[in-house]
Amino acid sequence: MTSKTALPPMSRRSLCRSSILAALGAGITGSSSPLSAQAGDAPQGPVNTRDKFHGCIAGVYVGSSMGAAVEGWDWQRIQKEYGTLEKLLPYHHYQGTTDWVREPGTTEDGVERQKLMIKAILDKQDRVSAEDVRQAWVKYMNPNAPGVISEPFEGTLLAIARTPVPAADIGKYCDYAGLISLSRSCHSIGLINAGDIAAAIEDVHDVGQLYNTANSRAVRWAEVTVVAIAAATRPAATADSVLGAIFDNVDRGDTRFFKEMGIRRELDQGLKKTQACKDFREMREKFASIYNCTGIPYSNSFANEVVTKAVCIFRMTQGNTWEAMKAAVNMGRDTDCLAAVAAGISGALAGASSIPEALIRQADHATSVNPHTCCKLTIRETSDALYGAFKARIARMKDFIRQMDAE
Q1: Comparing C-alpha atoms, which of 263, 252, 251 is closest to residue 308?
Q2: Which among 68, 30, 177, 57 has a CA at the least distance from the CA of 117?
Q3: What is the pLDDT of residues 84-138, one digit of tens each?
Q4: CB proximity list for 264: less than 8 A, separation 6 or greater
Q5: Which residues are within 8 A (CB) of 291 and not within 5 positions of it... i.e. 6 or more apart?
Q6: For 339-377, what is each residue's pLDDT tens digit?
């Protein structure tokens, strides 16, 4: 990338075209107050794949829990009460249905959604389909979770999942189209397909049918998240190559709709509008004139708004996980989902070393005392389990290549 603020020539590039075999050939390696803390140092030198997995999950979990405390607030209120929010706070969701005040660091509905996808991946030790994730819902989702730690509509979807209705049809019965539900929770689909952009797109379209109709805008916006993560986990990835991969791969179509109303167009407009922004304070004012819907259910939470902002934050912070997280939670509106996308993509590129370790520990503690979550693994246990599933997938692919290339 030529500079921090210059818009890269994304659509003209042909980046990251190699198959998963490129990842095989590159060699995949593994190896203060509890509520606020100083950031760690940015990573020096290459970040190995195991740490990229950890950074992605840490970015999502810590970012989601920090943003949840101010979800739905406008940025003026956040600034008035906290200046710059950079700590974990207790919070209360779903007022009127539960009196549960969450421990600082408690994750929310989007992470529960993600945890169920992770459960499906760990059970299969491979890529997953809508049917695989449906089975994880039935097996692991707490039936009392909807309206307490999950969105109320997820109770309806779980009830349908318990019937013979095909998994690919369940999303047709969700009342809300176009939401961020999938885009902010599908990171593990990008991780199990690390380096394999085409497979990540294929899988998010399949799994996305649990929440949306096939090929809907919400599903196509989720392409951005999984493409960015699959590209970021490549060994030689940079912020520039991730942005290039997004523009080279998402929303591919030749109709007038795709060209004039598509995802790449909206991302390009957002990036151009914010290319001179040096911090989130400038960026949130730029976006205030574009995304300001109110008065309808989930008015802050449409995928096009949240993902566009996340990509712009990623570009502005050059993939620094902690800086992306802080920018997102201070942006206003759907702060927890925005942090999940921006910090999750950044973590997949740069790892978790910039996130204050005390915040990770507090998020793990909050998970351990959460009575409603479907999984109490720590962030490191979760990311290492996903990394193990990815390595198992790679091992099977290597074995298949050896068998077929034996002559």
Answers
A1: 263
A2: 57
A3: 999 999 998 876 667 889 999 999 999 999 999 999 999 999 999 999 999 999 9
A4: 11, 246, 247, 250, 251
A5: 305, 308, 309, 333
A6: 999 999 999 999 999 999 999 999 999 999 999 999 999
CA distance 385 to 222: 23
Note whether 350 and 319 are within 8 A (CB). yes
Alpha-carbon gap, residue 118 to 116, rounded angstroms: 5
Q: What does the buried/exposed string (b/e) look like for 355-380 if buried means 16 or more CB atoms within 10 Å of the residue's CB?
A: bbebbbebbbbbbeebeebbbebbbb
336 in helix, strand or coil?
helix
Q: Three-state DSSP class for 239? A: helix
The CATH homologous superfamily for domain 10-26+51-86+103-404 is ADP-ribosylation/Crystallin J1 (1.10.4080.10)
The answer to whether 58 touches 325, Cβ cutoff 8 Å, is: no
Domain ranges in the chain are 10-26+51-86+103-404
CA–CA dist 185, 121 (Å, integer)? 14
Q: What is the pTM of this model?
A: 0.89
Q: Is 332:253 a contact under the CB 8 Å cutoff?
A: no
DSSP 3-state assignment of 38?
coil
Question: How buried is residue 202: exposed, middle or buried, by Cβ count under 10 Å (0-12/13-18/19+)?
Answer: middle
CA dihedral 28, 30, 36, 42 (to 10 degrees): -50
How do residues 288-329 score in pLDDT, each as one tens digit?
Answer: 999 999 999 899 999 999 999 999 999 999 999 999 999 999
Tell me which amino acid residue 62 is.
V
User: Helices 197-207 and 239-249, interaxial angle, to 10°?
Assistant: 60
- Judge contact between 110 and 181, C-beta under 8 A: yes
How far apart are the C-alpha atoms of 67 and 145, rounded to whole Å? 20
Residue showing tokens 């899988």: 203
CA-CA distance, 349 to 321, in Å (whole number)?
8
- Return the closest-CA partner of residue 11 out of 311, 247, 223, 271: 247
SS3 content of the chain, % helix, strand, coil (to 5): 55, 0, 40
Q: Nearest 5 degrees, angle CA 355-CA 269-CA 283?
A: 40
Output the six-digit token pair for 364: 């793990």
- Dist CA 106 CA 209 (whole Å): 28
Here the tokens at position 317 are 């912070």
Q: What sign does the CA torsion over 169, 345, 108, 383 have?
A: positive
